[in-house]
Please model this.
Amino acid sequence: MLEPLRQGLPPVDPTAVSGSASCALPARFEAVRAARSFTRSTLSQWGLDCRFDDVSLVVSELVTNALRHALPDDGRPTAASGEQEAAVRLHLMRWSTRLVCAVRDPSEARPGGAFAPERTEENCDMESGRGLFLVDAYSDGWGWHPLAGRLTGKVVWALFMLQD
Model:
């Protein structure tokens, strides 16, 4: 479940995207609220208010995971070439039949790792480690991939199918 996944993503062709929006999020847990607010506003502009609950839950989990597990211990992102980059960035992309929420963070570690223990009857009520299970349950698919080129880190994404 935690291997890099790219299948299921809409084509990367920018001309095929019917809408996209992005916001930088600071390395503070208040950023989760800002991510939900940005998601509500964007989905409303796209006429997708009915999808807010599921999408917002997934966005909250992805941003929380990035803030909790993907930042250096001092909470500051590492900047390549002296640039000051946002710690975490939320991207929302809409195609005619799909919506993708993608969260970029500076860590090259795969999502989950030690933070996503296998679910057993003994640990099913643990507070930590549920995020990716919720993402899997509320989205139509999810995955991640490392960034390429000058950028370091990864993108964790979730796919939502839209009604025609």
Observations:
- Confidence is low (pLDDT under 50) at residues 1-5, 77-84.
- Residues 52-69 form the longest helix (18 residues).
